């Protein structure tokens, strides 16, 4: 369709054009590239590509306006109308001043080879052709040396933040609705315009603005369209929910066709790739999430649980260098349940580099900590760097190599007077643990220390990477009793997140030390901690008040053993087992879904039965079975039934009870596995 036919004053087309020009914002760089080509200083072919709704058609209309102002004849071809395309394109073959604009090129993508090899070489030098479509150009354009100076490729991105605000202003969006609308739409023009229409119509909604289902459905049609199959749609929904999508993630959720679906995803115009996998445009991510949660909440929960389980396992098994990225992927699943709203990991993943501390970095450590916190903090950092150099990580700006922060994860099982005197934060943590629930044999506590240069404190990308490292340490540490996180220059949003979302207690008592947050990982283990956050996301904010995870009992070894002895004597009484402190221990928490009293009874019976696996323990098994499983009325009758002298029976029974106590205590500390009496360790006589 040729430009100019509907521009006469008095026609509706003139009015439409004026309104569109008023709503056009930004794109200064793209217009500058077009004008350079228009006035003979640039390329002959300009290829614009970007996802649906990103503003390609609006940009072509601006190009048409710029060409008309320059006095050059303009022709426009719409890929949705194939029949008139040839005649509309012919002027550019005859006139060196002609400008040809081709929109919706993805509809006629099959003509790309013909266009490149047959049509465009016939265009006179001086003429200008602009192609706009969702898909990037075939690599053969850029691989051909002949096109090196004649073709310019322009990926069209979101509007900048200032331009997005200007667009909302031009639409008359109430001030109180702008922030939630921008949080949803970002800089995506179509999403902004559709959201603006809803916000203007429902001006009283204020900060509660949400995209309604009409907006979501329209964006899905325009941005995503129809999927080839139900499996393809599920792959899209997984890609929208996950931080980054890899083929192994797809395989964990959709075992069949994972490879085929991954290859399909990576070719979609609204899906981008990074070193960690695929991720969709933010608006596509948002509308796919909103649609699935509304349309199929049960399916959404199932998908979330599968992705969550896969990513939680990745955190546990990742190499040390991959821990921050693995934690970022896991925490991204919690972004709508109180996690950071400005989660930026997808796009800034390589902005900062994490390194282990080397001996030659000690001088840098002292310089950075002195600049960040002063000489006293530098002395403290130097003290720990000498004692636990493996605890330290250095963070550099990737672009310049500039060191900007250090972190330390101090593992402490015992402290001497010198260590307590050297670090007041460690001394506070140690005193708190001793006064609350002290460490048990083999356990340790950890103290996280962070030193960052002033420009990088608070809610900064490097602090986010450090946060991922700290959470990874918590989730991966064996025998971790307490963790303590000091925030010297607290950002209020981060403080609230630690307190409300991550369930950590503020134990700060000395203002000069900043805020110190503690968590007892025996009372709320890593798995329960993750499940709580997962439930908050799936159930939504309404479930938050009742979503607190019940804390486990943290018993000393003596208290634990006494509870086991009592539970063995009450094994035939479920009512008595129900009130045992053992029902609130890790042992029973690991048996999720069972009635606690039933789970405890099953556990005790299994512990007795396990003794049969070791020939040296068979006599203990017989004594315990006769006493607690078969329920002999008296110990004398139990001994008589076994054909044993009473003193021998009592010795076997006592040793068997001690063996069960040791086995269960080992499982309480280390988790389920091979009973301790079957390990290659010293056995009691």
TrEMBL record:
InterPro entries according to UniProt: AAA_16 (IPR041664), P-loop_NTPase (IPR027417)
UniProt-listed Gene3D superfamilies: P-loop containing nucleotide triphosphate hydrolases (3.40.50.300)
Entry protein name: Orc1-like AAA ATPase domain-containing protein
Residues of the Orc1-like AAA ATPase domain: 24-76
Taxonomic superkingdom: Bacteria
């Amino acid at each position: 369709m040729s430009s100019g036919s509907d521009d006469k004053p008095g026609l509706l087309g003139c009015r439409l054009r004026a309104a569109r020009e008023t709503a056009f914002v930004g794109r200064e760089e793209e217009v500058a590239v077009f004008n350079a080509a228009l006035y003979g200083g640039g390329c002959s072919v300009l290829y614009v590509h970007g996802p649906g709704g990103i503003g390609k058609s609006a940009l072509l209309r601006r190009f048409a306006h710029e060409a008309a102002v320059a006095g050059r004849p303009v022709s426009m071809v719409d890929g949705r109308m194939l029949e008139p395309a040839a005649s509309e394109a012919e002027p550019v073959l005859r006139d060196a001043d002609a400008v040809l604009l081709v929109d919706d090129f993805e509809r006629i993508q099959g003509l790309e080879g013909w266009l490149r090899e047959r049509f465009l070489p016939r265009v006179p030098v001086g003429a200008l052709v602009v192609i706009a479509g969702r898909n990037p150009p075939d690599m053969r354009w850029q691989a051909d040396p002949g096109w090196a100076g004649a073709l310019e490729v322009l990926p069209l991105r979101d509007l900048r933040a200032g331009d997005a605000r200007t667009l909302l202003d031009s639409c008359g969006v109430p001030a109180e609705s702008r922030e939630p609308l921008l949080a949803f739409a970002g800089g995506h023009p179509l999403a902004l315009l559709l959201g603006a229409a809803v916000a203007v119509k429902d001006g009283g909604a204020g900060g509660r603005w949400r995209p309604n289902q009409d907006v979501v459905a329209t964006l899905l049609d325009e941005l995503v369209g129809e999927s080839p199959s139900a499996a393809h749609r599920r792959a899209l929904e997984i890609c929208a929910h996950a931080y980054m999508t890899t083929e192994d993630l797809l395989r964990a959720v959709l075992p069949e066709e994972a490879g085929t679906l991954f290859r399909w995803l990576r070719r979609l115009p609204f899906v981008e790739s990074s070193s960690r996998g695929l991720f969709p445009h933010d608006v596509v991510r948002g509308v796919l999430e909103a649609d699935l949660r509304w349309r199929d909440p049960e399916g959404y929960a199932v998908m979330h649980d599968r992705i969550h389980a896969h990513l939680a396992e990745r955190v546990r098994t990742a190499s040390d260098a991959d821990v921050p990225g693995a934690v970022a992927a896991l925490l991204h699943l919690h972004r709508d349940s109180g996690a950071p709203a400005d989660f930026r990991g997808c796009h800034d993943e390589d902005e900062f580099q994490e390194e282990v501390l080397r001996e030659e970095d000690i001088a840098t450590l002292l310089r950075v900590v002195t600049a960040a916190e002063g000489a006293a903090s530098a002395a403290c950092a130097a003290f720990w760097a000498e004692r636990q150099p493996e605890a330290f990580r250095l963070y550099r700006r990737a672009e310049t190599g500039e060191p900007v922060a250090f972190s330390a994860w101090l593992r402490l099982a015992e402290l001497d007077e010198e260590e307590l005197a050297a670090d007041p934060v460690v001394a506070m943590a140690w005193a708190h643990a001793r006064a609350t629930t002290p460490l048990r044999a083999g356990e340790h506590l950890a103290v996280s220390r962070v030193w960052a240069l002033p420009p990088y404190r608070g809610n900064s990308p490097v602090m986010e990477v450090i946060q991922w490292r700290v959470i990874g340490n918590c989730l991966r540490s064996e025998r971790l009793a307490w963790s303590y996180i000091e925030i010297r220059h607290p950002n209020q949003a981060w403080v609230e997140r630690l307190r409300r979302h991550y369930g950590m207690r503020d134990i700060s008592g000395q203002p000069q030390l900043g805020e110190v947050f503690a968590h007892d990982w025996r009372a709320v283990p890593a798995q329960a901690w993750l499940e709580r956050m997962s439930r908050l996301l799936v159930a939504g904010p309404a479930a938050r008040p009742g979503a607190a995870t019940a804390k486990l009992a943290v018993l000393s070894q003596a208290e634990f053993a006494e509870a086991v002895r009592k539970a063995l004597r009450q094994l035939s009484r479920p009512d008595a087992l129900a009130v045992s402190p053992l029902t609130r221990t890790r042992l029973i928490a690991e048996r999720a879904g069972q009635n606690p009293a039933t789970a405890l009874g099953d556990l005790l019976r299994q512990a007795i039965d396990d003794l049969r696996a070791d020939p040296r323990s068979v006599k203990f098994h017989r004594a315990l079975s006769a006493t607690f499983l078969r329920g002999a009325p008296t110990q004398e009758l139990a001994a008589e039934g076994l054909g044993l002298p009473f003193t021998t029976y009592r010795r076997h029974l006592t040793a068997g009870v001690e063996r069960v106590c040791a086995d269960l205590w080992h499982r309480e500390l280390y988790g389920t596995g091979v009973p301790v009496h079957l390990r290659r360790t010293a056995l009691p006589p």
